[in-house]
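Repro case for the chain-ordering regression, as requested:
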Amino acid sequence: MPSKRWNAGKLALWLLPLGFLLAFYFFPMGKIVVLALSKWRQNGLTGWDWGLVGRTAGFTFYQAALSTLLTLVLGMPAAFLFSRFQFRGKGFLRVASTLPFILPTVVVAAGFNALIGPHGWLNLGLMALFHLEQAPISIQNSLTAILLAHVFYNTSIVIRVVSTAWEGVDLRLENAARTLGASPARVFRSVTLPLLRPALISAFLLVFLFDFTSFGVILMMGGPQFSTLEVEIYIQTMQFLNLPLAGLLSLIQLVFCMGITALIIATGRSLSVPVMPRGNQENLRKPKKAVEKLFVLIMAFVLIFLLVLPLVALVGQAFFTSNDSGWHPTLQYFRQLFVNSRRSIFYVPPIIALRNSLLYALTASALALGLGMLLANAARGSRTLSRLLNWLVLLPLGTSAVTFGLGLYLAYGTGYGALRWYPLLIPLAHALIALPFVLNLIEPALNAIPANLKWAARTLGASQRVVWRRVELPIIWRSALTAFVYAYAISLGEFGATSFLTRPDIPTLPIAVYRYLTLPGALNYGQAMAMSVVLLAVCALSMFVVDRLQLPVWGDNQRKAQPDA
Amino acid sequence: MLEILKIRKYYENQLLLDDISFTLGADETVCLLGPSGGGKSTLLRIIAGLEESESGQVLWDGQDVTAEPAHLRNFGLMFQDYALFPHLNVSDNVAFGLRMQRLPDDDIRRRVAETLALVNMSAFAKRRVTDLSGGEQQRVALARALVPHPRLLMLDEPLGALDRALRAQLSEDLRAVLQQMDIPVIYVTHDQEEAFAFGDRLFVLHDGRIIQSGSPSQVYNHPDSLWLATFFGHKNRLQGTVESVDPLRVRTDDGLIACGPQPREFNIGQKVTLVLPSDTASLSEQVEGALKARVTDSRFQGMGHLVDFQLTDGTELTFFFKDAQKPGSLVFLALEAQSMLCFPALGTA
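-- result from build under test --
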């Protein structure tokens, strides 16, 4: 059949995404490898601070493992809550638990700061209540703060992945086990848990990868004494200008991330959830027994305290100011965003950062969507070239944001022509980071279109191009729109890669929040809160759009994952 | 005029279509009959240009169209699961092919309306196809395949997804519509009744080959092979040895059985398998030339009763009778010699 043969048009569609990957992924990664190898060639194994490398890698593993376990400890009962119980306020709780996933790290950091930081509501409240001189809760710059933020972030992933699987577990299987004499605990251990295993493994690996590549949280919540591979790459590049060591760390990071991603893909392929597709809400019940009611109440309280209160505190801190006579509403932090203060750390008023971020996000999401569509399209089919592309595209999935940033910085951020390139680098990096999410939504949607539909269109006189435009695109538009919205939200909040590529005259909003958050003074603090609220509002709006249009949600088809910074 | 020449196709290293060749007349309807998974749909897709064959040619009016892209062939294909576009309503689905031909909107509207009227779906023009029942979807799919006036219409199990009652009704409607069209039709089915009802000619596909072709009655009454006889549902078999060839008589453990003329020749002493169609036995008063049998079960089947018998040597046979028979009773079965099918016994052909 001619349509399966390669012609010039098809080859171009295949070469375009390949060219993009070559230029903006493989070339930058090659730069990192060359950098690390050049020092290696000079000094061999000596000349590296292996102690630092070992300590950093060790801590990265340690905090990721601990964070993941804690996230599962909270996420499992939360997934049970959502997949088995029907209760008032569930819709709100579900949206509230989905939101953290796309929130920028700076917003999360600002939110926890607003709640439990030295000037946080909790401390201020306790100080007022017990007439204390100092803040009683001091978890700023501690491992606890890091763990808390990671749990906040990733509980939504566990809930999403595990509760989807749990909802699908056929209740009749559990009932059958009960009639065969199994106690509820035994039913869970012998029936439910084995059925959930694929989802649990999938959630564990995903959360581990996200925690492993955590950057913003460590930098902002952990302070200078904690350093993961991501943070150390940043410090070695930006503070010590030790590019070879940054390169070596990036290589180590790359190897680990690829390994975890390979595991995610391998398990995702081999472990399909062995459950019956059941009617909607068939497995849901209202909590009736006292113990069930108590469980729902406690879980709702914990989730609200952990997932909702930090954001409420953030909004509160942005709109209220305190003095001796108490709290007063104010808009001064927002007004200040439009002022180009002489003492400002940027050359422009902070609101320009918002404009930059919105523009970058628009460019990045359009780029990611276009690239994702081309890749998904070109990687279909069984031809050798398609299979090759399918493998090549997996590599960026296992690359962390900071590694992207460093690679692009090395490849295009210095030397001749760097100046002209610069404004494009950030959206390029964001597009690469968002690409796995885009593919995760587009690929399954495309693959779900029955071949017959395309065949029918072909026999009715439609060329391949027309089939794409008139049949496939109209069918996958919801997924494409979701992909665009996610890419937009990811770009808007991206911090890791951006921190390598940003310049003081073209800051993005997360970079601005970070700078303001690390400066002393109530006005800076307030402005950081105000900017975080703007970011929060845009992200919440994105989720609202996805929810209202009944678009698919990321994680429903969980094939690939890529950490945000 | 369609001509298929030596189409060969492998599927996962197994030979699926083994040098299939046939021709199709100007307004002829041929039925491709065969069990599921036998490559019938693949053959249709190869003819449509949707799939590549390893070798062979598809010719139209003597011109080789094997390399022509599917969308330029103007061969209509109606899919088993209909493949209606879920994002388009009924009339937009039907209009799809006309839009590909870039016809003026007025023409498209008119032809869509005409074709929807032809399949009795005018009232559903603005409905979403996902809201239609199976039978309604089938009509829309037929209208969509017909409206661009294809040079050839291919129907892939068009009634296969419907329940029995609906199938009978839609089968009548489909026949009526196809009779109004002056185009060649290839009708693919695994259901012999459908094949008999629609086909001017029948091609039976088995093991990648066309094992028999001819008019439906010819193929049904004179299946060339034991496999085809079994495929047609003739399950009653007796093993025996040819005792005389003119007239053909076969000695079995249950007596001497007379057969009508057969399409192939036999030799005296040859081991054969007799196939007894289930509507060819009657109760006999005479012992001579009849089979002694015990009724083991009798069950109501709508138009009559299916009765199971056991012969003295243990062979089990099932025949169709108008009246019920009493289980346990001993009877004598007279067999219609004319309907009896005789094949060389397996492994001796």
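Ordering looks correct now. The interface with chain A takes residues 45-46, 48-52, 67-77, 79, 81, 83-88, 96-97, 100-101, 144-145, 148, 150 of chain B (CB under 8 Å).
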